[in-house]
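Model the whole thing, not chain by chain.
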Amino acid sequence: MAGENLRPERFFSSDPDVRTLAVEIYESIRDLPILCPHGHVDPQLFVDPLQRFGNPTELFITPDHYVFRLLFSQGIPLEALGIQPLDGNHANVEADPQKAWGLFCSNFHLFAGTPTSLWLQEELAGVFGITEKPSAENAERLYAQLSEMLQMEEYSPRRLYERFRIEALCTTDAATDNLSAHQALQNQTWAGRILPTFRPDKLTNLKNPTWRTDLSNLEVLISKEITTYPGFIQALEDRRAFFKQIGAKATDHDVLTPYTAEFTPAELEGIFQRALRGNADAGDAHRFSAGMLMEMAHMSCEDGLVMQVHAGSFRNNNRNLFEQFGSDMGADIPVQTEFTRNLAPLLQKFGNSKNLTLVLFTLDESCYGRELAPLAGHYPSVKLGPPWWFFDSLGGMQRYFEAVVETVGFYNLAGFNDDTRAFCSITARHDLWRRASANWLAGQTAKHVLGMQDARVIAQELAYGLAKRTYRL
Amino acid sequence: MAGENLRPERFFSSDPDVRTLAVEIYESIRDLPILCPHGHVDPQLFVDPLQRFGNPTELFITPDHYVFRLLFSQGIPLEALGIQPLDGNHANVEADPQKAWGLFCSNFHLFAGTPTSLWLQEELAGVFGITEKPSAENAERLYAQLSEMLQMEEYSPRRLYERFRIEALCTTDAATDNLSAHQALQNQTWAGRILPTFRPDKLTNLKNPTWRTDLSNLEVLISKEITTYPGFIQALEDRRAFFKQIGAKATDHDVLTPYTAEFTPAELEGIFQRALRGNADAGDAHRFSAGMLMEMAHMSCEDGLVMQVHAGSFRNNNRNLFEQFGSDMGADIPVQTEFTRNLAPLLQKFGNSKNLTLVLFTLDESCYGRELAPLAGHYPSVKLGPPWWFFDSLGGMQRYFEAVVETVGFYNLAGFNDDTRAFCSITARHDLWRRASANWLAGQTAKHVLGMQDARVIAQELAYGLAKRTYRL
Amino acid sequence: MAGENLRPERFFSSDPDVRTLAVEIYESIRDLPILCPHGHVDPQLFVDPLQRFGNPTELFITPDHYVFRLLFSQGIPLEALGIQPLDGNHANVEADPQKAWGLFCSNFHLFAGTPTSLWLQEELAGVFGITEKPSAENAERLYAQLSEMLQMEEYSPRRLYERFRIEALCTTDAATDNLSAHQALQNQTWAGRILPTFRPDKLTNLKNPTWRTDLSNLEVLISKEITTYPGFIQALEDRRAFFKQIGAKATDHDVLTPYTAEFTPAELEGIFQRALRGNADAGDAHRFSAGMLMEMAHMSCEDGLVMQVHAGSFRNNNRNLFEQFGSDMGADIPVQTEFTRNLAPLLQKFGNSKNLTLVLFTLDESCYGRELAPLAGHYPSVKLGPPWWFFDSLGGMQRYFEAVVETVGFYNLAGFNDDTRAFCSITARHDLWRRASANWLAGQTAKHVLGMQDARVIAQELAYGLAKRTYRL
């Protein structure tokens, strides 16, 4: 079936009219350079030209919560996949990566119908030339083949970056990150463009259990004690300036709800002091998060960094798993999200600013047509992010276009980003978006909602132009 | 592309089976008369046979928030489109309507994929015979052409009304409107049927900043001081009787949430007295709105006026813009809406009444299948309004049918209304609905969910019969 | 049209590629045995081999709220359909079942586009060989034909069970049911497999107006007075053990919201004592419901009964109708539902248990992709139930697959159940699911998202395997 999946017209409508148009549109954008304005690839991968990826299990399974979440849901313990618990007790952890690989391959049928299945097959075929679908039968052979390739320079991170024709790759970095990898890259002659993104969540979210430690790290970085709210704000501004100097184009903010509100300096100082004393409660955290979004919008109006807000993920819903293995274990579950009322204070203050670009993401699809498209279709500052996480899929993209375009048009979209930590899946993900865009535009063209000339221009924008302009890449 | 758009089979599925059936169904309803049971056209347009529309900018841009909202979202100031601020300061306002028209034309690509793009092109082609898509290149020529036509009798409001084959056109009129235009029309021999609709929002919404003035206007109209809640209710009943006498078929109510509840007369009197003294707070306004919906349902049971409830629009979300330019500036953003619990008190009291027709509209599509279809599929009084505002689009209509028909059938739908203030777009809007209906019915027929004979009958109902019976036109 | 509806390719896409694949997939599963893991058929029907269904009105109209709700919505009083009010006042009740049947037939057009229309036509054709669509013209003749058939052994419940090739039929039974019918069936040689399901709602929902009586019934059954919370819990455990012994595979829980929370034994005892004294308030009922779901999950971990939770129906929304006719009168209206936060306490305690199978159902489609698929795609205990009630329809199934599969895959689905009290509609309902599944898989295959071999395996799972394994049938 992997072979089948590589048919040139894959993922397009089976309607011959639509398919023909989709192929034509797709071919006009297929080879455009790739822009990655938002993602989670480790910049360290690119610092050393000799750097190699690890073994197939380390590359495909243990870091990818999309993969192991579905195996876990079917009763496979994380330990059996070689995932290490926080307490360092390795007693139950599969030590042989090839055994974990075998478990994954023999359960590959569980991924049928999911984008993970498509990404993995596209990646195996497109990057490594393997057109077989993983199975119990070929697990050992695939492991050997991949292991061999992963040691070759041809499959090193830098060579793949070049082969993928990536024009810019933005990483995501804690506000307290010293950006040493990015700085090292700046001092080299390699042409790859790896840019940091400022993510201050650990400092702005008072529920973060390590908040005090993270604040201390911030103090170390700026060589100053932080004892007041204005001092805290100043430190964040300093870090933003530093990130910008190293090439950052954007900031990123994960919030459970996109609540924003204006508070007096005294209120914010009060919360901050309680946080310093370890006395901040849930209400404080909620208000602080709201105040921080206001501050970040204000700072973006000043320094021009694009502000990205990802809302609606209830993190670490499975508490036992969280205690055993930590975050990002596939147990982040979306919740209902409300943008119109929550963002009103921020947008009423900064929404008409020419300097602000606010990119919104949701895990609650009912918001697309109801709130996000009307907001982005009105406020000059608001751009609508691409389908996020669970919706970064063929169906999710189709529903996204369906839900938003009629209200927001195309030119208020932020373009695509792959949001991935799996570097080798980047081309597969962008290709899926390009195919989904081409197919959707072809459908609109076949119905005479769009003309073919418009469709072609818009396809270019969706694949490249919108991201380039939104993030000023 | 406008030329392409005028292909006879436009907007139908590209599947040949579906398309053939859609053409056949559409042709059977294309030329049915047009009923406009709900809209915002100015009745004054029709009073004087010599009346003409203004220049192209006044006709197509400045009054249409669908149009200027999208231009604003891309950074074009409203002033550049010739829109006047409330303070009368014209310093930054484009005085030359042709320049505003040029800005609109050269940005026409922004509308790609939106219903506004389709309406405008259909209107230009169908009403004015212009099959070019507006662009920077043809802006001046189109302006000249249109300006000339708009002065001709052939393009006068009355002649277009006749040419459009409109059977009845309902306007929307404040409860304090004296209906002078409607009365003038009644005293003329012109056959056009322009009917008022009773909209008391400014009196029933205590958040209305001009509430006291509007109440005074009401006092003037009924030549009586209003000092008590029963006096207020009596005044509203008097106005409804007057509207009905001038031909009104319906009332219209815009509410943020469709909250209803029963209050004691003393509670309502208390709120009303606080409102008279300017002391009503947000809670009062919320309760008063709930009480008013109950009163209106009660009055509809008495006088038979169809009750229309539009819920879920957070009006004037962009406060700066509101302060500068007032309402209807494209900054009304939808919010989540709840009908099941909110309407229970009203429906438990009046929902089984044979005299009540309650038409519900939503901007929260997730309500369609979850709440509105089950409500309309049970209560004899409830009818489901057509896709409203952002969803009055090809995709919106498709999702509407998809979401509601299986639960509610066809005969509990209220039929279509164009809800427009842009008179010249009426045929384009009805044609889109007829095409979308035909296409959807064709799809169901091609799958053998419906027989062709049923589909044809239902198409007639959707285009004409349901609206006629729901509004007793 | 009924004739048209029986075309072999009915309900499949009109796209020739998809249709061809759909036919092929469907044919491979069409004749699989039928599993009914959740439904409301009366077990008494099967105890006596001589048992017959009643007249056509009793079979098709009076017990089916899908049918009479839509007639009621169009102004037809329930009495005119022969439905008896609770007060026994028959004055306005149509006494002649043939007249009620005539009313139904002459209004059959109201069902166009609904699954009820498809079920009824499929049932008439598939079970009774009647391929005409009911109408005013043929009402009398159909009534006579059906009446005659319903007296024949060939159309007795037992013969139809065999003809339908049902492998197991689970009923739904109050915790206080003595399961006499099930026991009688166990003592017979008939091969039919009719299994009870434990539904304790009347005891766990303190808002139930007959709670005290139901508790007394429970006391009688266990021959013990229940004066304490532990005694209550013990009684429920005893009943579960009894149900399991008679063959039960599952429990079923209807809740307005799926709120769960941990309470201390003292809190639960306090609520229980207030309930015994008739003093429990709405807050008590809300908390008790949350505590009961925790207890039920705990018990399922012990006894292995599958736990089914149906959430989001506001029962008896039409109070007048409820007072006149009681429950299940077509006036249950869905409300917004929240699972992520509400279920967190339960899932954090039991969600990783190997012994728990928790099947979730919703009437709020916006939860599918946002909450239910991510939950079922992570927690080993959670399975996603099929489209429920209003969404048990061609469109509803299509939207379900579309919304959930990309996140949850196929193997975390619970398979299909018909949830019906209309025994004769069972084959029609399962056939619709099989057709919808085949069509959806064909669409995915035509787009090369799935290979044909996978699609065929998955079709078998959806039609049979998943239900069999989920419910251990």
